[in-house]
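At this stage, I put together one protein's amino acid sequence and its C-alpha cells, which the following lines show:
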Amino acid sequence: MKTKRQNINLRELFRKKLEYAEVIPDAAVKSMLMRRVARKEFMRFNPARLNIYYIGGILITGITTAVIFFSESQNSARLNPISISGKLNKTDTSSYIEVHVALPIKAETANSNAIQNESMRSAEVSRLPERSKTEDSKAMGSYKNSNPIPTGISSSFSKNGLFGEVAPDKRKLQSEFKPEVILIDPNTSAGCAPLKVVFHNKSTSYDSCRWTFGDGGYSDQKDPEWIFDVEGEYKVVLDVFSHGGHLSSTASITVHPRPQAHFEIAPGKAVLPDDEIHFLNYSINAVQFKWDFGDGFTSEFFEPRHTYSKFSNYNVRLVVYSDWGCSDSLTVLNAFSGSEYFIAFPNAFIPNTQGPSGGYYSSKSDEAAQVFHPSYSGVSDYQLKIFSKLGIQIFESYDINLGWDGYNIGQLCEPGVYIWKVRGKFRNGEPFIKMGDVTLLKN
C-alpha cells in the first residue's frame, strides 16, 4: 500500500517537473504520427479539403453518368425505319401503294429479307385496277378486311400519289372548320366613354333576334342603339332564330376612358394686372393640354404662368386629351371677378371703452369691430375723413392701415351716426371718391 502511494507521488512529481518540457520525437516516430494524423483527416468530413467523401461522390457520379449514356445509346440504336415501296404502273391508272416497314437495325439478314418479301407480297395483293369511286371504296374495304396490315406497317392510298396520311373526309372537314357567319355591323368598334354605338343586323330573313351587349343589357330590336358609359372591353353577341335553326355572331367593342380636366388659379385673390397668375393643373388621364387665358393668349404647357396687361373679367378654358384622343374641357367664367380693385367700409362699429388705440387694427380687433376701417384691394393713394352730424371734422387719416377708433382728442365720442368720406387712387391710376355713414354703437 505504501509502495503504490509512493508510485503515485513519483508520477505527480515527474508531471510537475516535466509539465513545460519540450520533447522532440524521433524522425521515425514523427513520420508515423503524421501518417496517422493524415489518415484520420482523410476519413473526417471537411468541406475545405479533399477527403474520402469527395472521392466517393466523384466515383458515384461517374458511374451513374456512364450507365445513363450507355442505356440511351442502346435505345437509340434499337430501331431504324426502312422504307419498302411497291409501285403499280398501268397504262390506265396512276394509283400506287407504298408500304413502310419498321425493322430493327441489328436484325439478322435472313429476317430482314423475310420481312421485305412479306411486305412485297402484301403490296402485290393490294394492287387494284382503276374503277369508279364506289367500286374503289368497296375494294379497299374488302382488302382491308381480308388482308389486315401487320402492326408497325402503315399504308397510304391516294389517287395521284402517296402523302403519308389518308385524306380526311371533305364533308367532315367542312363541318369542323366552318367559318363564323358575320351578322353584326356596328358603326364603330372603339371610342371614348360614353360611347354610342348603332348596331346593324345583316340577317335577311329570320323569326326573332336577341342582342347581348356585354354590360348586362340586351335588346330584341333589329338595329338597336346602345351607350357604353364605362370604359372596358365588351363582347356583343347577336342570336338569330328561324325555322331553319339558330345562328350566333359576336363583335368586340372597346371603350376608352375619358380624361378629366381640372385646374386652380393661384394666388386665390390675385390683383390684376400686377400679379403673375399660376395655373395649377389637376387633370386626370390626360397627356396633352391646351390653355386659353381669355385675353387672346394660349399655351400648351402643363402648368403655365401668365400675366394680364389690365384688369378685366376673363374666361379661362382648359382642354385636355388622352392617349386615345379622348377629350374633356373646363371653363372658369370671370376667373378674376374677386380680384378687381375696390374699397368698402362697414356701416357700424363698437369702440373700445378702455381708451383710444390710435386707430391700429388687427384680426383680433376686427372680430370685436372696435376700429372703423375699409376693406380694399389695389389702393395706392388714400384719404379718409370723419364728420359729425353738424359737419364738423373729427378724424382724418392718410394711412389706409390706420382707422378711426371712435375717439376725438382722447375723448370717446357719443354713440350715433357719423359721416365718412374717402378719396384716392387705385394702382392702375383710376381715382375714386366715396361717401357714406357709420353708426357708433355703445359697448
